[in-house]
Write a structure and sequence with these properties.
23% of the residues lie in helices and 17% in strands. It is α+β, with helices and mostly antiparallel strands. It has a six-stranded antiparallel sheet. A three-stranded antiparallel sheet has the order 6-5-8, with no helix packed on it. Helix 1 (4-17) packs across helix 4. The longest helix has 18 residues, at 28-45.
C-alpha cells in the first residue's frame, strides 16, 4: 500500500498538472485475471465496437462491470487508488462508472474532451469528477495511450469537440494507474500496432452530483447486497454529509438489509 507521503505527492501533482501516474500499483495476477475475464465477457455478450466518433470504430467497451462478478468489486476500493481519489474529491465520493476500453489495431484518435464538460459549472471549478485509467497492458504512444494536455484542468473553458490540440501520451507500464481531474483535456490515442491497448476506466464523482451510470438501477439490488460495505457506499447506498441521498428520512443502506454507521443530519441538528 502507498504511504501517506506518497499519496500526498500524487495529490499535489493532480492539483498542479491535472493527472498523476501511479506506476505498478496493481497486482499482476489480478490484472491477468481481469484481462481473461474481459475476453470471456466479450465473447458471451457478443460485444462489438460502437462505431461512433467518440467511442471509436475499432474500440471494444464493456460497461457496468460491477454486475459481472466478484473480480470487478475489487477495482473501486483498491487501497492504492481510492485514498488518492478521496483526497481529490472527499470520502463521500461515488462510483460514476466502471468500464473496460480495448483500443484495437488501426483505431484513430478519440476527440479531445473533458469528462466533466457536460456539467454546467463555470470553469475552472473545484474537482467534481476524478477518473482513473488502469493499464491492463503497457500503454505506449504507438498502441493508443491516452493523450493528455497537462494543466488544462485549470483553463476557463472546455475543449471544442472538433478542435485540434497538441497533447502528449500518458505512457505507463502494465499495472499502472493514471488518476486525473475530470476537467483535464484528454482522449484515447491511435493504435498503430497489432496489439490491443486494454484499460479499465474506473471513474468517480463527488457525492453531490449525478453519476454517469445509474448505479442504483444498473446493479440489481441482490448483487449490491453482497458488496462489501465501502463498495455499497460508493455505489450510492450512502448519504452525503448526512443528508443528501436519503429515502424518506431513512438511510439507503437499509434497503440492502444493513444497519448504517454514523448519524444523519437531522439527528445532530438541534430542533
Amino acid at each position: 500500500m502507498l504511504d501517506q507521503p506518497t499519496i500526498q505527492r500524487h495529490v499535489e501533482k493532480i492539483q498542479r498538472d491535472g493527472y498523476a501516474i501511479v506506476e505498478h500499483a496493481i497486482e499482476p495476477d489480478f490484472l491477468d485475471a481481469v484481462i481473461d475475464d474481459l475476453h470471456r465477457l466479450e465473447r458471451e455478450l457478443e460485444v462489438v465496437p460502437a462505431h461512433n466518433r467518440f467511442e471509436g470504430n475499432k474500440t471494444v467497451r464493456i460497461y457496468n462491470l460491477l454486475i459481472y462478478g466478484k473480480l470487478y468489486e475489487r477495482i473501486p476500493v483498491h487501497p492504492n487508488i481510492l485514498p488518492i481519489v478521496e483526497r481529490i474529491l472527499d470520502p463521500g465520493c461515488l462510483v460514476s462508472s466502471l468500464s473496460s476500453i480495448a483500443i484495437c489495431k488501426d483505431e484513430k484518435p478519440q476527440p479531445i474532451h473533458a469528462d466533466d464538460q457536460l456539467i454546467p459549472l463555470p470553469r475552472p471549478h473545484v474537482p467534481i469528477v476524478c477518473n482513473t485509467m488502469w493499464a491492463l497492458t503497457d500503454f505506449s504512444d504507438e498502441n493508443g495511450a491516452t493523450r493528455i494536455i497537462p494543466g488544462s484542468h485549470l483553463l476557463p473553458e472546455a475543449p471544442d469537440y472538433f478542435g485540434k490540440y497538441d497533447s502528449i501520451p500518458a505512457e505507463m507500464p502494465k499495472g499502472s494507474v493514471m488518476i486525473y481531474n475530470g476537467s483535464l483535456w484528454h482522449g484515447g490515442g491511435a493504435n498503430r500496432t497489432n496489439r490491443r491497448r486494454i484499460g479499465v476506466a474506473m471513474n468517480y464523482c463527488a457525492g453531490w452530483i449525478r453519476q454517469q451510470e445509474n448505479q442504483q438501477l444498473g446493479i440489481p439490488r441482490e448483487i449490491a447486497a453482497q458488496f462489501e460495505p465501502r463498495l455499497q457506499e460508493l455505489c450510492g447506498y450512502s448519504l452525503y454529509n448526512g443528508l443528501i441521498g436519503h429515502i424518506d428520512k431513512s438511510h439507503p443502506m437499509e434497503l440492502l438489509g444493513r444497519t448504517p454507521d454514523g448519524t444523519m443530519a437531522w439527528d445532530v441538528v438541534p430542533a
